[in-house]
């Protein structure tokens, strides 16, 4: 990939985090500001789209100004403004896209529309060994390794890709119903553990026996596809069957078993992906569920190839990854990842990535 020196302001509002970041040369994170809405959506046990959109409107201006201030740069220092155009919640996406359009129109900065999932994949260009690059650190040669299998797992996505280059990304499998993060949210709601479900399930599972209950990993016609609906139903039936008893629910064992089933389902598909694509040199995992300790352990046990995870700050939705993807769009022919746009840029709630 031909490198190009850039200073990009990126904006991300695809779901329930309002985020802005300033990234230099697609590698170095100068600021990465995220305003989380988790507390707002906790009473609903999941993201309430209208509430998310309204809060983005409140947060977008201060978050952008904070990102610029933290980076020590002003409008005149920037080369481009990048924004997530999809996939995501339409109302939430519109807030970020309209903010980016306004900045572009007021400052003359070129505008780039970025694919959210490609941003997650590109987050690995910002880090190595689980930490972000230092400002004067030279990235390792040929990193991230190509080709690789990318697993993107979050509240809204559970997808597998073969990344030959960042301009050649092939979709090879994914969920047929719920995403892994959504399955965690619904399981946590069944057990009264709160929102977001992933961290709540992980905390409750500490000390639990992951083999206490045999839960399904979901059979699918496509060997690389995923399904979590049966797993959720099995957990619900277990809980309902136990609530007639005077004994307290074995929450630690239930959550440990559920978490292990999710990790097994995901790691099984990764192993199959590597068998189908022996040219892959590594597995790169991203998205909010990439923070889950059981998944990390299962994937590392499943293959002898390197398995890479971003630092926790780059796992959840953030704008630094959007800047990294924007830089890719500038440096190679990767219009699916990011592309120049005009003031007619529109959002796409369902935006495919890869053939």
- What is the helix tally? 11
Low-confidence stretches: none
| Helix/strand order | EEEHHEHEHEEEEEHHHHEHEHHE
The rounded Rg comes to 20 Å
Helix content: 25-40%
Please describe the biggest sheet, giving its number of strands, its sense, and whether it closes into a barrel: 6 strands, mixed
The number of distinct β-strands equals 13
As a percent range, the share of strand residues is 15-25%
Q: Report the principal-axis shape.
A: globular
Coarse structural class: alpha/beta
Would you write up a description of this structure?
- This protein is α/β, with parallel strands linked by helices and 355 residues long.
- The protein is 39% helix and 20% strand.
- It has eleven helices and 13 strands.
- It has helices at residues 38-41, 49-71, 90-107, 116-122, 180-190, 197-205, 229-242, 251-276, 293-302, 312-315, 320-331; strands at 7-12, 17-24, 28-36, 80-86, 111-115, 127-128, 131-132, 148-153, 158-165, 168-174, 283-286, 307-308, 338-341.
- The strands form three sheets. A six-stranded mixed sheet has the order 3-2-1-4-5-13, sandwiched between helices.
- Strand 1 and strand 2 (17-24) form a beta hairpin.
- The model has no long low-confidence stretch (mean pLDDT 95).
